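Q: How would the structure tokens look for this protein?
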Amino acid sequence: ARHTTTNLRVSNGSPDAPKTETEDKELQWDLFTRHQALDGEWWGNWDTYDYMGDRVGSTVAGVSLTPDKEGASVEHTHRILSAST
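A: Here is the predicted structure in token form.
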């Protein structure tokens, strides 16, 4: 079996692709804060798997991403629904 690794710092001939590890980190942070780390919540199913890869449980979970004013950090909070009435 042949295994290949994808490295985002490889330019692939694109003039605006990151050329250094620092540029790559800055690009990834920019994409994360611009498209995902918006002030709000995401909800979905949280699945749990055993060592064989079989699903053994599922529950509803929420993720809150709250960026600071400077855009230097993002608070990341999980809320797991464990019971409902």
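The chain has a mean pLDDT of 82.

The longest strand covers residues 55-67.

Upvote if useful.
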